[in-house]
Design a protein that fits this description.
The complex is a heterodimer of chains A (about 450) and B (about 400). Chain A is an alpha+beta fold and about 450 residues long. Chain A is built from 16 helices and 11 strands. In chain A, strands 3-4-9-6-8-7 form a 6-stranded mixed barrel. In chain A, helix 2 runs antiparallel to helix 12. The longest helix of chain A is centred in the last third of the chain and has 37 residues. The two termini of chain A are about 30 Å apart. Chain B is built from 11 helices and 12 strands. In chain B, helix 2 packs antiparallel against helix 8. Classes of the chains: A alpha+beta (about 450), B alpha+beta (about 400). At the A-B interface, helix 2, strand 3, helix 9, helix 12 and helix 14 of A face helix 2, strand 12, helix 8 and helix 10 of B.
């Protein structure tokens, strides 16, 4: 029966090709526009590390200007901490399972041979980073506490850089030159791109940045005098009696990120208390002049605090949903017109013995077919839309792919919308009294 | 006008159809007006002048990686060579450029008692005495720096400049009475790090578009040497930018101790910073165009269908003496009625949507005149769309009335 209805539906669509095309096009455009904006929203607000996002916590300590407005939530506190606080925490006995202190920097990489030197971003961090964030290794393994303490000249590089420098071979033991220093490769990590890049995500553009291709011990980066490439925020001048670099490291400028891994609610509470106690101690020596405002936020909370999803994106999702509604209204209007025009045919079928139910079903199949075609058109449009979005925005390359969930959702939504939209006209047409229509002809 | 009664009654026979179009028009109006408003705002932001000679300025970023190179001397040599190139008007080193999205912000204190929450924030550009000309600024009062006022900031020195040239906006913010020239301000609370204002230029934005302090900028005679990053800005004679950019890049690349990481025209740099706004303008423009297209086509489609449906009645009316004009008018008035209803609903929708977007995403309030303008556009769109099927209807011969299908 479905087969027969489908054939009838196709025949009916062919009878009014322009109208049918218009319906499929409108539905496709609506679905395509909505899917485009929603995909970006969905990926941006996604969980970058689903199996661990509830045990990883970003740390905020409020060392800011006592004259500033009072703190009401984590959003009012600097998203980064000072070098000195982070360094102290890394060396303390804490209730956390692991902690990682880090900052983003960069240098000129000078390859061996003829390839010209190029600039490369570097993540300076501690050995704990890799296990905490489940970084997948291709060769080698994370360095250890010993290398952190020894300020060793070692590096873990990304797969992409390993392909570029060493043709993808196992490069353990080889060296790379950064500025004027050599670093021995102790690990190569596989493709790893959390979206958003939660571990250093103050602001949308940093949250959408590529992961670095070079990781080195943070202590070593400090020895190299590599300055931070992210935001550096200061409220208080550095101590002028110290040499500038030392003054900067010991000062109140915030430019490093700090994470803790806390597996149980108990640990979370203990760690928070530990941080509070640290700040209380520091208050005694005249630091942390504001009220006690330590915050720890798990990954998804941290994405909220940093407002990773742009307002523009939310506006576009809202507008494109209304756009979809217009397209659906448009389709219903056209369906109404079309089905009203089918009065004669329906009357004939009814007179020949088809029940209202059968007429209803038959016409619903036609509507469903338009819905499926609209959904398919929508996927095409969304693909184009995402290409457009990728070319319009910087750093969206990790955000614009059609994932299977979105594809299925598109077809499903389009069909549901079309069937809902078509329900009324189909119902109307199946209610027509056959006799009145047959008579007038 | 006497037609309205019968047309309205005829419409009521297909209430649902009319309601659907009216709703569609209402939603379309709401989306189009709200989108147009956002487009207008963003376009104004993008077009706001930075103060530079935008079309004839380029930015070069290099990174020195060999140690044992005298960086201060390299700066001098580079700038001397660049300034000597044909087509170059002026060049300076800098730490940042306006509307680049990344720069150096600081606070100024007008006296020793001022608290940090009252301090005036501004964007700082560390340049040499050629900065004023390179950035194309009009000095409205005072003087430029002298070469001997330059200070070096690096890993070993904390010496700070003692003079600065500020934008009119910064001068007015610091000294609302208009007597900023010659005054001393402080870079730190408690009367520390005094700097004298020796000059005022009319206008230049700082690095961060969207900030309320955007017009508060200043030039300081300073050179920073933290790491190997070195940035130059070059202003060329009109129309010579491309040649100058190629020349400068070639010159900078000759030195094997560094890499030339970025060569960018100022316009390109600005576009990168505004890419989110530019994207928004393009996406919303596409939304408006497609939406108007769909709604227009929808009206054509529906009217076309209704003409086909009513062939017989139209034929009958024609046979009874209605002119072609009467038939065309019938459809125009019908569409006018539906559109007007839709637009009245649409005004409510527009205001509601604007209220929602403004409350949640701070998009701002739409000026009133957008409403009549949007309504007029939609009304004309409806009339234009219905004209095609209406003319087809007017061509139906009166003889059709006598035939049965």
């Amino acid at each position: 029966m479905l087969n027969y209805y489908l054939r009838l539906a196709l025949a009916s669509m062919r009878r009014t090709p322009v109208l049918s095309a218009l319906m499929v096009l409108a539905l496709g455009l609506g679905i395509g526009a909505f899917m485009t904006t929603f995909t970006v929203y969905y990926l941006m607000s996604g969980d970058p590390i689903p199996h661990k996002s509830d045990v990883l916590f970003a740390v905020q300590l409020d060392n800011w200007d006592p004259n500033d407005d009072p703190t009401e939530s984590a959003k009012d506190v600097q998203p980064q901490i000072t070098y000195r606080d982070g360094t102290w925490l890394m060396n303390a006995e804490t209730p956390a399972s692991r902690q990682a202190h880090m900052y983003g920097t960069g240098a000129v990489l000078v390859p061996e041979g003829d390839e010209p030197p190029f600039e490369e971003r570097i993540r300076a961090t501690w050995h704990t980073f890799f296990e905490m964030f489940d970084v997948p290794f291709l060769y080698g393994q994370p360095w250890s506490r010993v290398e952190d303490n020894d300020r060793a000249s070692i590096a873990i590089i990304g797969r992409e850089l390993n392909d570029r420098l060493f043709d993808g071979e196992n490069s353990l033991g080889r060296s790379i030159r950064l500025d004027d220093s050599f670093f021995q490769v102790v690990g190569v990590i596989d493709d790893w791109q959390p979206v958003p890049r939660f571990y250093h995500a103050d602001g949308t553009s940093r949250a959408l940045a590529d992961t670095e291709q070079i990781f080195i011990p943070m202590n070593r980066a400090i020895d190299q005098e590599w300055t931070p490439w992210g935001n550096t925020n200061c409220w208080k001048a550095n101590d002028e009696d110290l040499p500038p670099l030392e003054g900067f490291l010991q000062g109140e400028c915030v430019w490093t990120q700090f994470w803790a891994e806390l597996e149980t609610p108990r640990q979370v509470a203990d760690y928070k208390e530990f941080l509070d106690n640290y700040v209380r101690e520091q208050k005694k020596i005249g630091r942390f002049e504001r009220p006690l405002n330590t915050f720890i936020s798990d990954v998804m909370e941290w994405m909220e605090v940093n407002e990773i999803v742009r307002n523009d994106n939310r506006v576009l999702v809202r507008l494109s949903f209304l756009f979809l509604l217009v397209c659906v209204l448009n389709t219903v209007g056209l369906l109404m017109a079309k089905f009203m025009g089918k009065g004669g045919e329906v009357a004939l079928r009814r007179a020949m013995g088809a029940s209202r139910r059968a007429v209803f079903q038959q016409n619903l199949v036609e509507v469903g077919l338009i819905g499926v075609l609209g959904g398919l058109a929508g996927i095409g449009m969304a693909w184009l839309g995402l290409r457009a979005v990728e070319s319009l925005y910087r750093g969206y390359q990790h955000l614009v792919h059609l994932d299977p969930v979105m594809l299925a959702t598109a077809i499903f939504t389009a069909t549901v919308f079309a069937v809902l939209a078509g329900m009324y006209p189909v119902w109307r047409v199946s209610r027509l009294a056959p006799a009145s229509l047959l008579k007038t002809q | 006008m006497k037609d309205i009664g019968p047309i309205f009654r005829a419409l009521m026979h297909n209430r649902m159809g009319a309601l659907l179009i009216a709703l569609q028009i209402a939603l379309t109006l709401a989306i189009v007006i709200n989108s147009a408003f956002i487009i207008q705002q963003r376009s104004a932001d993008i077009a706001s002048p930075t103060g530079l000679d935008e079309a004839n300025t380029a930015i070069f970023y290099t990174n020195l990686f060999e140690p044992n190179v005298d960086q201060r001397q390299l700066y001098r040599d580079d700038l001397e060579a660049i300034r000597a190139m044909p087509g170059v008007i002026a060049a300076t080193h800098t730490n940042s450029t306006p509307a680049s999205g990344s720069g150096w912000g600081e606070d100024l204190y007008t006296d020793a008692e001022m608290q940090s929450n009252d301090a005036i924030s501004f964007g700082k550009f560390m340049v040499d005495e050629h900065g004023l000309e390179t950035f194309n600024l009009d000095l409205v009062a005072g003087r430029n720096f002298r070469p001997d006022e330059m200070r070096v900031r690096d890993m070993t020195s904390t010496e700070r400049p003692k003079v600065m040239v500020v934008s009119q906006a910064l001068a007015d913010e610091l000294f609302p009475d208009g007597d900023a020239l010659g005054k001393t301000v402080f870079d730190e609370p408690g009367g520390k790090s005094p700097i004298q204002i020796i000059g005022i230029y009319s206008h230049m934005q700082h690095a961060w578009p969207g900030a309320s302090s955007i017009n508060r900028s200043a030039l300081l005679p300073e050179i920073i040497m933290f790491g190997g990053g070195m940035e130059y800005v070059v202003r060329s004679e009109p129309g010579q930018l491309e040649t100058v950019m190629a020349q400068v890049e070639e010159y900078l690349s000759k030195n094997r101790s560094r890499i030339v990481d970025t060569v960018r025209s100022f316009e390109e740099s600005k576009q990168r910073t505004y890419s989110g706004d530019i994207a928004m303008v393009k996406l919303l423009t596409a939304v408006i165009v497609v939406l108007i297209g769909i709604t227009g086509l929808g009206i054509v489609g529906l009217a076309w269908f209704s003409v086909t449906q009513r062939q017989k009645q139209i034929g009958t009316r024609r046979a009874l003496g209605a002119t072609r004009g009467d038939i065309v008018r019938y459809f125009m008035v019908e569409n006018g009625l539906i559109t007007t209803a839709g637009l009245v609903l649409g005004v409510l929708g527009t205001v509601a949507l604007n209220w929602f977007l403004d409350t949640n995403y701070e998009t701002g309030r739409i000026p009133l005149w957008y409403l009549p303008a949007g309504m007029a556009v939609m009304w004309l769109l409806g009339q234009a769309a219905v004209l095609i099927p209406a003319r087809r209807a007017s061509n139906i011969p009166p003889a059709l009335a006598t035939r049965s299908i």
